[in-house]
Specification:
The protein is 36% helix and 19% strand. The protein has five helices and five strands, in the order βαβαβαβαβα. The mean pLDDT is 87.
């Protein structure tokens, strides 16, 4: 399998459709991710914590193609939220993000089949490449 630590950049012409749910407690991360993802053709929903992410997923599950989920957030963190999200049908494709390294973060969601991992701070090309892989592997 491809090493998700440094994914190759997305094709310059990558265009997507559908909705990406971005859950992160940092305003700057949410707004920057929203701009980048919208430029690639997606609609973006924003959540400040795992509880908001679950509520938005429940309301828009048929539209959401990828969930970008921060590991550490108030109210409900990404590690708990991913467990709840994976009980849903359809089951979301989740890209976990964290300031921790992949080796530090992924044991917190052991047994959960996350679709990708991005260590913060990540570059625009890494974000779009991770989303591209999720969408194209559906």
């Amino acid at each position: 399998p491809r090493n998700p630590k440094r994914p190759p950049p997305a094709r310059a012409d990558f265009r997507g459709k559908g909705t990406v749910l971005v859950a992160d407690d940092e305003d700057l991360v949410r707004s920057t991710a929203k701009r980048l993802i919208e430029r690639a053709g997606f609609t973006v929903l924003l959540a400040r914590n795992g509880r908001e992410a679950i509520d938005l997923y429940d309301a828009h599950a048929d539209e959401i193609v990828v969930v970008l989920l921060d590991l550490t957030m108030p109210v409900l963190g990404g590690d708990a939220a991913v467990g709840e999200l994976f009980l849903r049908t359809p089951r979301p494709r989740v890209i976990l993000t964290s300031g921790f390294t992949e080796d530090e973060a992924l044991p917190r969601v052991i047994g959960k089949d996350v679709a990708g991992f991005l260590q913060k701070p990540y570059h625009a090309g890494e974000l779009l490449a991770a989303i591209s892989r999720c969408v194209e592997s559906r």
